[in-house]
Every structure is written in C-alpha cells, then in structure tokens.
Design brief:
By secondary structure, the protein is of the alpha/beta class. It has four domains: 98 residues, no CATH class; 261 residues, no CATH class; 188 residues, no CATH class; 194 residues, no CATH class. It is 43% helix and 10% strand. The protein contains 33 helices and 18 strands. It has a seven-stranded mixed sheet with strand order 11-12-13-14-15-17-16. It has a four-stranded parallel sheet with strand order 1-4-3-2, sandwiched between helices. The protein has a three-stranded antiparallel sheet with strand order 6-5-18, with helices on one face. α1 runs antiparallel to α2, α2 packs across α3 and α8 packs antiparallel against α11. It is elongated and about 95 Å long. The two termini are 58 Å apart.
C-alpha cells in the first residue's frame, strides 16, 4: 500500500470505535457525525481512497445543517463510520446533500419508508387485528356497564415497531368516528406527519404548572377539539350529508396526502391550528372557575353536574354523538393519541405528568360509549401498561379501580396469509422456485407488515433499514441490548423472566429492538416476549455480525462474549439442558462462514443466498475433517434398498447422494410441539421452513433429535416440489461419556417416510475432541449418520476466528431448564404468530 493510501485509513480510523453519544442526545450525535465526515472528505483526494467525489465537497456548515435536518441520516452515517465503512458513509451523505429539492431523498431509509408508507397507507387492511380489538372493546364495555370500578375507558395499543399500530388506528377510524392526535414533533421522521402545533402547545405550556393548571391545559385541548368537530359537523349537515356519511367524510378529509415534508391534509392542518387557538381561549376560562377546579380535585368520579363541565365537555359530546349514526355496538367514538409518549419530556420529576393528566381528564367521558387509544412507535410498555402495582393512580394500586388490559394482538406474516387465501396466488407461491426465496418480494411476505413497504427498494436498502430498526440506531460494542437483539434473531434466544433486570431487558427489547410482546400481567405489568421468525431481520443481523472491528475480531465474537458474560452469567437467557444453544451457535456461524458469490441482482439478498450442503459441512468442521466425511463409504455398492415404491441405487458416499443438496437457513426458531407422525405433513413443514429461511429448535419432549434443518435436493431454478425436500436431523449431547444415535430406521420412517435420503448428525459436545469421526449408514429410509465429538475450534473450524472459540466456551457448561417466575401472564400467541407454518392443508 502506498503511503497516501495508508493515510486514508489512518485519517479515518483514528476514532472509529469511540463511544457514540446516547441515542437521545441528538446534538452530540450531529457533532460526532459532522466531525467524522469532515475528516473523511479531507481524505477523499488521497491516493488509495476507494471513492472519488466529482463535485466540490460541502463545507462544515453544510454538513451540520444537512445532518440537523435528518436525524436518521445522522445515525446511519455515525453507524457506518463506527463500523469502518467510510466509503459508504461519505457516499450516503453526499448523495443526500446533492439533492436540493424538498422531496424526501433516498439517502435516508426512513425517508424512503415515509414515501412508501404513503403509497401503502390505503392498501386493504388484512388480518384479524381489527376484529380482535373490536371484540376486546365490546367485552370491556360490557364489563364497564356492570362494574363501574374502572379507571376510564382507556386502551393502550402496545407492540414493537412496524407491526401496524398507527395503521390499525387509522383503519378503525374508517368505521368509528375518531378524533386523532399524532404527537410527533415538527420535522421528525415518521409517518404520518405529526400535529406539531398541538404538541408544542402542550410542551411549551407545561414548564411550571400546578396540577390543576396541567389538567386544565389538557381538558381545554379536548374541549377545543370537540368544539371544532361539532362546527365541522354543522357545516356538513348543511350539505345534507347523512349521519352514515359523516364518518366517511371525516376520515377522508383527515387522511394524509402526498407531500414533500408535511403529509397532513388541509383539514388536518386547519384542525390543529384551530384546536390550539380554541384551547387557549377555553383554558383562560376553565383555570379561573372554582367548579372546574373542584372537578379536577375530585378523587372519585367526575362532577358531571357543574355548568362549566356540561358546557365544555358534556353538551358538545352529546351533540357529536347525536349527529353520528345510531349503533348498538361499542364504541360510538374514539379518542386516538398516536406517539403519545411525546407529550411528556423524558427526565425530571414530572416526566409522566401530561400522560397522567390526560388519562384523568378522559374520565369525563366515562359515561359514554367513547374509548381512547394510546399508542407509540416505541411502545414504552412501562409507561402505557405499568400494571396495577406500578400504576400512577393511588386508586388503581389500592384496588379501588381497575385498568383495562392493553391490546397487543398483531399478527405477523400478514401478506403470506393473504396470498394463501387466494387460490391463484397460493398455487404461484407453492410453485415458486427456490432461487426466488432470496428476493425482496418473497422475504417481505414474512414478518411484520413494515417490510412490505420496501418492495420497490433494493435488498441492500431494506437490509440497512431493518438493521437500523433492529438496533434502534448505531451499533455499540458495549450495548448489551443490541447484542441480544442481534443474537436473538439468529439463535432464538429466550429471556428468563425471574428478575427486575430481565424485565427491563424484555421491555426495552419490545420498545426498541423489534421483539414481540405476547403476554402481560395485570398485577405487576410483567410481560412475556418472543422473537418472531423474520427473514429480513435475520439478513440484517447477519450483515451486522459479520463486520470486523479494528482489533480484527468479528462483531460475532463481541456478541458471543456479551452473551456469555452478561446474558448467561446473569441468568437472563436460557441456554438449554444439553448444549442446544451452543449447537445452534456453531451451526449458524458455520453457515455465515460459507463463501458466497458477490454478484447478485439488486432485489436479491446477498446474505440469504442458498448454499450447498458440502460447503456448509466444510465450513463447520474444516477441510481435513470434511475430507474424512466425503471419503467414507456409508453403503456397500451392492445394497439396493427399495425406496418410495421404486428401486433406486444408494450412492455409497455422502456427497454423491447430496451433491445438489442446498440449504438456506439464516436463523433458528423454536417449537413446543412434537413433529407430526405423517411424512406428508413433515414435507409441508420442511417446505415452509425453506421458504422462511428457518432452522428449528425442537421441543424438549421430541424423541431422538433436538434440531432440524431443511434441505432441498431438486433444481433450484425450477418449480419447487415437496418431493425434493429432505432434512438434517441433529441430536445434541453434553455428557462426558460416549452417546449413541437413538432413532431406529422404522421410527425415522414413520415421521419422514421413505422417499428422500436424510443426514443425521450427533454432536457429543461434552467429550474430548476426537478428529476420528464415526459414521453409519441405515437403509429404508436411507440415513447417513455422522458422530462428531468435542467442542471449540478443534471440533468446529467455523469457530477458528480471533477470540471466538474462547468466547463461546461458557455456552457448553451444565445448563438449566427454562424457568419463568412471577404471576400469571395473559398470553396471546400461537406458534403461527412467530412464523412456524404447521401444515393444515395440502401444499401441493
């Protein structure tokens, strides 16, 4: 390398892994990214620079100005610089800076997604989320009418980012009249655009307010909204719009429009301006009224008899209800508070004061069939659904009043389910060649609905965006939650919920790192969580884990060390009783080490490409051990067992039989069910696992095997066929004494049939490493079995990277069974919600 080329790396790497400022410190993030970019621009003209800039570089002021206007760009640029991807950071920023129009640029994945969200906002809403919410509210309404001891008709809508919370609220407002506030700051990223005038009214006016003044401020806001809405209804009534048409008209006029920055409709902008204006006028009246003050101070139910309460709240509400179409179903109206977490500034003694006041003021509407929904991009489980014991209301903690449970029943794989209900699309999906399983269109049918927004973007753009969402910003080696997020989406990690530290990890993982909420305890607010099977997220995690730090270690190694020293050592994560976690780790690392061609079309995921079985085994055990496998004769040449009703000669050598076998798993998921005792159902399960890039941690009650990896033996470019599906069956032991493969041929045949050959691997992790493998060939069905003994880099060559084998060593100590502590948690999930496609119908 030339001296100037060395300078390029020297200039740019001087602070590569310095500690990034916290995510909420936007000013420091901007300064960090701006400083590093200025260093990078100075190095562009050096010999050895991998990029060139044909235009004049921006000034320092230009850089800071561009970054301040787009915090997502800040975090992406800082992240690329932190990872040593200097050329990517400069290119990304420079392309953004060159685009001078007001339209969102493609430089920021978050801006891309905003424009795509507009396109998809009006798509047909699919899934049972609306029905489930309706059923929950009707049940709650019936409960409230029987038992008045409830703290307002308030439903927190909680789930991790990208699951469709805002879209659900918007869809509900199609059929139920809804007054919606989106508390997103001005120019903040996100969709739809925020009602910043209303948010500024709340935040600027609450710096030093008494409790009465704060409640008055909130009450005046709602009263102003009622006043404007009733005025709008009166205008529409003059146009002879029937009550049934009012809901539709309000919905249509309030919906987002295509715009450069502010996507709000004309009516929505007028609504925000007028509501703030009227709220200020009403506040001036309410704050001086002693009967209103008495209402605010009232500990129990609100005082409905006072003239001022009737004038500003009850009469306007009843007038609005009278104008709406009559219905016997609940509710007749919604208050919707989107991005509600923003109504309070974090930190300080009153960081929940506005939220508390808003919830109390909503008690004024408890006598009506009016419900309120609170939701936020980052769910803030502890804020919206703290549970009885931690609630901010003394009457709730004392048991005098009860809360209604949060709603979190959002499905995954919505697009896949939609296609399965269309006979034409269903047949296309089942015949789709395996090579298409790596495409953007295919991989985005699984997981959360957000990924479908990216179907017209390149795979690399989607992967960058998914990584940003998974990590909630830039990656830091010392961030335990980020390491957990990366590994959980590859290794199916579960949190042991028996400590406050575990509870915090679970809540933050839902709030910020795409983990799903699946259960909630009323008493304590404790939650149960899971990592869904999402091929897009797994691909993004691969990209992050395979990066190299300045010290030469892979991010993989740092995360494994965090898993051992922070997560396992503190009892936060279960590792299994037989070393299953260690086994999953080495298998996933091995697939990552398989060398892949770099040429790939833009709409195909590089990290999710299929690979051959031979490449995988070679990466797993190393060249010499792989040679031992390929040279062993499993069957004698004269053996000709009958398979599948026809005479097919068995190939004596494993790689002759499996020379075309391909794997494509990118992550593990788990099941608590036993494998079905029906070959066709197993073939269906394996087919769906291939489509979702899955490997499976089997139930602890499953006989013989612990892990299942699907294989495809057919031509990947031709129509997919279940008849070409096979599997790797893995048994894991962690004993000092030698183990034996347990399954007999007839027991394997009962589950997998007798049509395709199978590979069986016994991992004896507790034994000393022995480079002399044991092999066995079984007929009817044809099963090639390999017995691998030991652990570490001696047994698994894939761990032969700087520090990786040593970092993984604590994962194979004596394990403990998974245990959950605490009280009962309301569960709302089945295995289909995390991406296990158990067969219920014929695939072909």
């Amino acid at each position: 390398m030339s001296q100037s080329g060395a300078n390029w790396n020297l200039v740019l790497s001087s602070r590569t892994y310095c500690h990034l400022p916290d995510d909420d410190d936007d000013g420091q993030q901007v300064l960090y990214a701006a400083e590093r970019l200025q260093h990078a621009y100075r190095a562009v003209d050096l010999e050895g620079s991998p990029i060139s800039i044909k235009t004049a570089p921006p000034t320092g002021q230009d850089i800071r100005g561009a970054l301040r206007s787009n915090m997502t760009l800040v975090e992406l640029v800082a992240g690329y610089l932190t990872e040593g991807r200097y050329d990517t950071a400069i290119t990304y920023f420079h392309n953004h800076w060159l685009q001078k129009s007001d339209e969102p640029t493609t430089a920021s994945p978050e801006n891309d997604v905003s424009m795509n969200l507009f396109t998809h906002w009006s798509d047909s809403f699919y899934g049972r989320a609306i029905d489930a919410l309706s059923e929950l509210i009707e049940s709650n309404e019936a409960s409230a009418s029987i038992d008045a001891a409830h703290y307002s008709k308030y439903i927190p809508i909680i789930q991790s980012s990208g699951m469709g919370k805002s879209r659900l609220a918007a869809e509900v407002s199609r059929v139920v009249f809804s007054i919606t506030f989106t508390f997103r700051p001005k120019d903040a990223r996100g969709y739809p655009s925020g009602d910043y005038e209303i948010l500024e009214y709340l935040l600027e006016s609450t710096k030093a307010l008494s409790s009465i003044e704060r409640h008055t401020l909130i009450g005046a806001l709602l009263a102003g909204a009622l006043d404007f809405t009733n005025e709008w209804i009166q205008i529409k009534s003059r146009d002879s719009i029937a009550p049934e048409g009012l809901v539709k008209e309000w919905y249509n006029e309030m919906q987002p429009v295509r715009g450069s920055k502010d996507t709000r409709s004309k009516l929505r902008r007028i609504f925000c301006e007028e509501v703030v204006k009227r709220a200020k006028e009403i506040y001036a009246i309410l704050v001086k009224d002693v009967t209103w003050q008495a209402t605010v101070k009232q500990r129990n139910s609100p005082i409905y008899t006072s003239d001022i309460v009737r004038k500003y709240f009850l009469i306007p509400t009843e007038s609005l209800i009278a104008a709406l179409p009559a219905t016997t179903k609940s509710p007749i109206m919604f208050w919707v508070f989107d991005e509600a977490v923003n109504i309070d500034k974090p930190g300080g003694l009153d960081d929940s004061a506005n939220f508390i006041a808003l919830r109390r003021v909503l008690l004024l509407f408890s006598k009506y069939s009016i419900w309120s929904m609170f939701l936020s991009t980052n769910s803030k489980v502890g804020r919206f659904a703290a549970g009885q014991q931690a609630d901010t209301s003394d009457r709730v903690t004392a048991g005098e009043l009860r809360l209604f449970p949060p709603f979190f029943s959002f499905p995954v794989d919505v697009e896949w389910k939609r296609r399965m209900e269309d006979p034409g699309l269903r047949s296309i999906e089942f015949a789709k060649p395996m090579v298409e399983f790596e495409s953007v269109d295919h991989m985005t049918v699984y997981g959360r609905p957000l990924w479908r927004v990216y179907t017209n973007q390149s795979a690399s753009q989607l992967s960058d965006f998914a990584r940003y969402k998974l990590l909630c910003g830039s990656f830091a080696l010392t961030n335990v939650r980020q390491s957990f997020a990366l590994l959980a989406n590859r290794l199916a990690l579960d949190i042991i919920m028996n400590s406050p530290e575990a509870a915090t990890l679970a809540k933050e993982s839902v709030n910020c790192h795409l983990r799903l909420l699946v259960g909630w305890s009323y008493e304590t607010g404790a939650i149960s969580t899971t990592t869904p099977s999402e091929p897009v997220v797994a691909d993004a995690a691969i990209a992050a884990l395979m990066l190299q730090s300045l010290g030469g270690e892979l991010v993989w190694t740092h995360c494994i060390r965090t898993l051992a020293n922070e997560l396992l050592a503190r009892g936060l994560v279960a590792k299994g009783v037989r070393g299953e976690l260690y086994a999953r780790l080495v298998l996933v690392v091995a697939r990552d080490m398989v060398k892949r061609p770099t040429e790939l079309e833009a709409n195909y995921f590089q990290n999710s490409r299929a690979f051959k079985l031979g490449e995988f085994l070679q990466a797993l055990v190393g060249d010499s051990q792989f040679d031992q496998i390929t040279q062993h004769q499993f069957f004698k040449n004269e053996d000709r067992p009958r398979r599948g009703g026809s005479t097919i000669p068995v190939q004596p050598y494993l790689m002759e039989t499996f020379k075309n076998a391909r794997l494509n798993f990118s992550h593990f998921t788990f099941t608590n069910r036993k494998l079905p005792q029906e070959p066709k159902e197993i073939a269906s399960l394996l087919s769906n696992m291939l489509r979702q890039h899955q490997a499976l941690q089997l139930s602890e009650y499953q006989k013989y095997w612990d892990l299942l990896i699907p294989m495809y033996l057919g031509p990947p470019e031709q129509d997919f066929s279940m008849s070409w599906v096979s599997a790797i069956l893995i048994q894991v032991k962690n004993r000092k004494t030698r183990s034996q493969l347990s399954a007999k041929p007839h027991e394997i045949r009962e589950i997998f049939g007798n049509t395709q050959p199978l590979l069986q691997i016994l991992l004896d992790l507790g034994m000393d490493s022995n480079k002399s493998y044991e092999f066995r060939g079984q007929k009817n069905p044809d099963v090639y079995s390999i017995h691998i003994r030991g652990s570490g880099a001696e047994a698994f060559a894939c761990l032969n990277h700087l520090g990786m084998s040593e970092a993984a060593r604590p994962l194979i100590g004596e394990g403990e069974p998974l245990a959950y502590g605490g009280d009962s948690i309301r569960q709302e999930i089945d295995e289909e919600n995390i991406g296990i496609r158990w067969p219920r119908e014929e695939c072909e």
